[in-house]
Amino acid sequence: MTELSTTDTAAHRSPTGEDVVPTLAEFEQALVTVSAVVQPTPIESSRFLGDLLGAPVYLKCENLQRTGSYKIRGAYNRLVQLTDEEKARGVVAASAGNHAQGVAFAARELGIQSTIFMPVGVPLPKLQATRDYGARVILRGHTVSEPLEAAAQFAEETGAVLIPPFDHHDVIVGQGTLGLEIYRERPDVETVVVPIGGGGLISGIAAAIKQRAAEDGRTVRVIGVQAANAAAYPPSLTAGEPLNVPIQPTIADGIAVSRPGTRNFAIIERLVDEVVTVSDDETAKALVVLLERAKLVVEPAGAVAVAAILEGRVASSGPTVAVLSGGNIDPLLMQRVVSHGLAAAARYLTIRVPLPDRPGQLARIAELVASVNANVVEVLHTRRAPGMQINDVVLEFSVETRGPEHRELVVETLRGAGYEPRVID
């Protein structure tokens, strides 16, 4: 994919012939505009990730942004552009979380009435935060597509202005202000790794940072990361056009988008150097690493850039910035994801062992596990399980381990003592 100079920003066009790449001047103006509500977020160095990559790694902590994600940038920049007559009609949006909060917050700051359609199963913290920002929230359907349809119908019936989450010029320009921040704070950056859903964030970052770097005679690589279960961009880029791709359930619900945005695709096709994918297990491991090593709470969608670095899918020989795009995670989901991440990293092991029903067996198992310095965290002891003999019991227990080698040591120690342990995935 080609680099972008400051003189050819309008060279790439949408299917309608419209110029889609915003100019550097637009991004710079937007940075001034959004500074009314946006806090410049820190860039933290990560020695752990740097050692893995073989180059300095920095984390752009947009999870610490107001409303908990970068979405406020695009939402505010879009709402500021509305005419007084449009503002009087109010705005409407559909979202399962971050876009909803960004629009609600921006609307409140500008004195605009907002209506947000959200799916019925939206996590309570996201629902309550959106309401607390002053939005009228309407729950509709069980997937993101149903609230989107409802919001479009609401806009048609009431005249409210529909605020799209990514496929709009003003939204792309607003999100791209993050790219200018990155370059301002790390002018030596060589690679930026960005989560991708519909493409609003990465299209803005790529256009902004590549134009800014070109002024200094430099190039910056931009790598996108999608959840493997919701990866519309790889096949779309291969086909040369946005495709609708069936999506599977993923913990990275914030980037689970079935079709690239039209404007976003046109920019990404030209300016993004590579798009890779990560699995849910890999994302869960990244979330645990961020908690343990960086002391940062990040939602799964916001952790995929780190997952790509952890799994060796990013190559860079110079300073690399991973964008942590959001931190809005339901505590109940956090609990499940952390457990899953520990298991995926071989840090948590569940074993089922059949035992003869006689005194001392439970104590013997505990002694064996303790002998290899594993910590038992949960135990289930039952005489009722399919296929058991009448004089047998089954012990199922979970232990904390230090990694794959320690995990195997626990299992082999039990086998060496004459037991038949079975690892439960």
From TrEMBL:
Swiss-Prot/TrEMBL cofactor(s): pyridoxal 5'-phosphate
Name of a matching Pfam family: PALP
NCBIfam families named among the record's database cross-references: ilvA_1Cterm
Annotated source species: Labedella populi
Signal peptide: none
UniProt cross-references to InterPro entries, sorted A to Z: ACT_dom, ACT_ThrD-II-like, Ser/Thr_Dehydratase, Ser/Thr_deHydtase_PyrdxlP-BS, Thr_deHydtase_catblc, TrpB-like_PALP, TrpB-like_PALP_sf
Protein name: L-threonine dehydratase catabolic TdcB
SUPFAM superfamilies per record: Tryptophan synthase beta subunit-like PLP-dependent enzymes
Function as written in the Swiss-Prot or TrEMBL entry: Catalyzes the anaerobic formation of alpha-ketobutyrate and ammonia from threonine in a two-step reaction. The first step involved a dehydration of threonine and a production of enamine intermediates (aminocrotonate), which tautomerizes to its imine form (iminobutyrate). Both intermediates are unstable and short-lived. The second step is the nonenzymatic hydrolysis of the enamine/imine intermediates to form 2-ketobutyrate and free ammonia. In the low water environment of the cell, the second step is accelerated by RidA.
This protein's UniProt keywords: Allosteric enzyme, Lyase, Pyridoxal phosphate
Enzyme type, top EC level: lyase
Record-annotated ACT domain positions: 350-425
EC numbers for this chain: 4.3.1.19
A biological-process GO annotation: L-serine catabolic process
GO molecular function terms attached to this record: L-serine ammonia-lyase activity; pyridoxal phosphate binding; threonine deaminase activity
Homology family: Belongs to the serine/threonine dehydratase family.
Reaction(s) catalysed (UniProt annotation): L-threonine = 2-oxobutanoate + NH4(+)
Pathways per UniProt: Amino-acid degradation; L-threonine degradation via propanoate pathway; propanoate from L-threonine: step 1/4
Quaternary assembly: In the native structure, TdcB is in a dimeric form, whereas in the TdcB-AMP complex, it exists in a tetrameric form (dimer of dimers).
